[in-house]
Amino acid sequence: DLRRRLHLRRHDEFGELAATFDQMLARLEAAFKRQTQFTADASHELRTPLTIIDLELNRALTQLSTPEEYRQVLEQLQAENEQMTTIVNSLLLLARADTGQITLQLEELDLSDLTLASVERLLPLAQQSQVSLATGELPELLVNGDPHYLSRMLMNLIENAIKYTSGVGTHVRVELSCKDEHWGVVRVQDDGPGIDDEHLPFLFDRFYRVDKARTRSTHRLADGSEVKEEPGGTGLGLAIVQWIVHAHNGEIIVESETGKGSVFEVRLPLLNQEQEATPKNDRSM
Ligand code: ADP
Fold first, then answer.
1. Which residue's CA is the nearest one to ligand 1's atom 2?
2. Does residue 270 sit in helix, strand or coil?
3. Count of C-beta atoms within a 10 Å radius of residue 4
4. Minimal CA–CA distance to 189: which of 135, 247, 245?
């Protein structure tokens, strides 16, 4: 009987071990697949501006002669260079984040100050895009955060809302509130095109764009050939936003309805004011 029981136990343990091993393999495989996809996407995104630069340079060398023609090509090259720089900088940031090489410079911050500053910086873009950009009440919400990264998070979300909403009579609204006394909540709300349910699970993936065809513009070259080009966007903005939120122990959720608009809501843990107000020396009491 003992022998049988021992045999059964060993059988169970083997089964468990095999299952764990299977799970580990599946996770490794998924990670490897993601990595391969990521490399393919990154190469693709960089190849487009490189192709345009190559074609434009050839055109300048073989067909152009007037200063005005050269100036136009140089401007195009500058724009492509900027696009590549943005992509490479975003990729570097994500790579450093992945490998734990970024140390946040944490300090006591008021979310309302950061929000107001971001909104003010984006007012010209909103005006140019004919979007009315406004804030609700901005209560004081103290968090322990890195001002550089939290500003970047706010800028990315508000800029997206403006970029995808643009048009006369459209609105972007930024609101701050407190939830359950522990969470500072930032809501960036727009009445733009909204995002279909099927896309929501992938929105924060690197290089994911909802409708590539719609957000791309065609670059027509002098020889009649065409290159599809993204208008400034990299598909990395929300991946960076998500990293920043998680690095601050926060959460981000998105609610959206096609044709009605989107809301991106970030929750960040509020500073425990009682603890902070008590100087360390006095704590022993
Ligand atoms: P991008 O550089 O393309 O803006 P993001 O990572 O910031 O990249 O956003 C990913 C995709 O999510 C965008 O390409 C867009 O399709 C969609 N998106 C983001 N914000 C909004 C919004 N406020 N309204 C509609 N679609 C949005």
1. 233
2. strand
3. 8
4. 135
Q: pTM for this structure?
A: 0.83
Residue nearest to ligand 1 atom 8, measured at CA: 235
pLDDT in tens, 120-176: 999 999 999 999 999 999 999 999 999 999 999 999 999 999 999 988 899 999 999
Which residue is associated with the tokens 């007012």?
A: 123
Residue where the block lists tokens 């930024």: 174
Cβ–ligand 1 contact at 193 (below 6 Å): yes
d(CA 119, CA 155): 8
Distance CA 72, CA 49 (A): 16
Query: Side chain identity at 236, as an amino acid letter?
Result: L
Distance CA 107, CA 245 (A): 15
- Both structure tokens of 13: 């343990």
**C-alpha 199 to ligand 1 mean position (Å):** 11
In what order do the strands lie in the sheet containing 170-179? Answer: 131-135, 170-179, 183-190, 261-269, 251-257
**Residue 8 phi, psi (nearest 5):** -60, -45
- Beta-carbon neighbour count of residue 150 at 10 Å? 25
Sign of the C-alpha dihedral computed for residues 21, 94, 210 and 268 taken in this order: positive
Burial (0-12, 13-18, 19+ Cβ within 10 Å), 259: exposed
Q: Where are the beta strands (DSSP E) in 55-169?
A: 107-110, 131-135, 142-145
Q: Hey, which bits of the chain come out as E strands?
A: 107-110, 131-135, 142-145, 170-179, 183-190, 217-220, 226-229, 251-257, 261-269
Taking alpha carbons only, the member of 90, 85, 103, 183 closest to residue 142 is 183
Cα-to-centroid distance, 198 and ligand 1 (Å): 14
Contact 228, 235 (CB under 8 A): no
pLDDT digits (tens, 9 = 90+) for 112-128: 999 999 999 999 999 99
